[in-house]
Amino acid sequence: MKKNHVELTHDETKVMTSLTRVVHDMISKEIVLDNIWDNKGKKEYLDLLETEDVLPQATDSLTTNKNFKNLKPTKPKTPKSPTSSPKPPKQTTLIPHDIDYGVYPQAHTQRAMDVWGELQHHLRFEEHDNAIAVLFRVLLEFAIDNYIDRKQLTNIHPNDKLANRFKKIADHMRGENLVDFKYWEGLKKFENTEPILSANTMNKYVHSKDFFPSDHHLKSMWKILSSFIVICLKA
User: What secondary structure letter does DSSP report for 61?
Assistant: First the structure.
């Protein structure tokens, strides 16, 4: 705010895209006032948007602020017919039903695939949020152990914490060109204590009696970690 005027400090397109996402989340009730009423809720929501690359970045900064009032309105696009673009079904399970990840049971991944099946077909948000959060952590652990065994990694020690094992495997994947640089950079967030994507969050889902699972966070974490888990299980 400057002299009672709203000014843009970042690229107009990026800002409007971010604001559109917020409006959509509120209208669709993906986010309600209870979710962002306090500072903790606001920070978690902003962290979620940042994780999904919705928010403007430092590279989007303007050299000179732009007065929001002087923006030229863009002509709204003609809405598509509802019959031509039906609303996608709500994701009710952590692992979506309509995606073939190409992961199939093998002798050495049978237990992991049992957990996968429960997360994809049986455990539903709003009914089993705690079970989903705990089994998500279990699936990640099984996937990591499988990658270590199949790739015969020797730089991982039995007393390494989850974040350390995750980092070493992500680095190994990058060295083997199994993931690109951008995805590897995104995975590095897991080593930190960010409230959305981190080993710390997954640990709290299991061990903290005051940390309650959020389906929005879990879906976001799956969206980011699914490729990592699939690579581990297919190793």
Answer: E
SS3 content of the chain, % helix, strand, coil (to 5): 55, 5, 40
Query: pLDDT tens, 120-129?
Result: 999 999 899 9
The DSSP symbol for 5 reads B
* Cα 33 from Cα 48, distance rounded (Å): 16
Pick from 185, 137, 181: nearest CA to 161: 137
Write out the H or E segment, with its range, that includes residue 65: strand 61-67
Are the C-beta atoms of 130 and 150 separated by less than 8 Å?
Answer: no
More confident call, 9 vs 233? 233
Tokens of 23: 């409006």
State the alpha helices, DSSP H only, in the chain: 12-27, 39-51, 110-117, 129-151, 162-175, 181-187, 199-207, 215-233
Under 8 Å between Cβ of 119 and 143: no
* The residue type at 63: T
In the block, residue with structure tokens 């995750």: 166
Q: State the Cα torsion 29-35-38-40 to the nearest 10°.
A: -130
| pTM score above 0.85 | no
